Amino acid sequence: NKSVMLNNCVGCPPVCYNDITDARKISELNKRWPQLKYKDDVGIDKQYLWKKEFLKHGSCGIKRYQQPAYFDLAINLKDKFDLLSTLRNHGITPGSTYQLDDIEKAIKTVSIKVPSLKCIEKYPGDV
């Protein structure tokens, strides 16, 4: 549905998140969709990010895509739209400072629309 953002859906029936237990799937997700806000072991054990994103976005299409299919689709999209390669192709590499406009222009070359970007500061003591 291109008319609305699939966001904060109310599941009918209500949707639950099932922890991912398959080691191969966890490895694939951690490689392509790392939980950067948490240490690796905590992120994998608690699956905060994956759970949040599935309940916020994946639950919208639960009648068509069950949880495993949602994460397979996320992995396939990540592979198709490799953001780091796109940024590198535009001279933007991790560890340096760039203008927001330059980053948005680079991403727009593969996404068509201007991305919604924000910075999240990690404070000392955050998990």
UniProtKB/TrEMBL annotation:
Transmembrane segments: none annotated. Keywords: Endonuclease, Hydrolase, Lyase, Nuclease. Coiled coil: none annotated. GO terms for biological process: RNA catabolic process. The keyword Hydrolase applies. One of its GO terms (molecular function) is RNA binding. GO terms for cellular component: extracellular region. It holds the Pfam family Ribonuclease_T2. The keyword Hydrolase applies. InterPro entries: RNase_T2-like (IPR001568), RNase_T2-like_sf (IPR036430). PANTHER family: RIBONUCLEASE S-2, RIBONUCLEASE T2. Belongs to the RNase T2 family. This is Self-incompatibility ribonuclease. The lineage of its organism: Eukaryota, Viridiplantae, Streptophyta, Embryophyta, Tracheophyta.
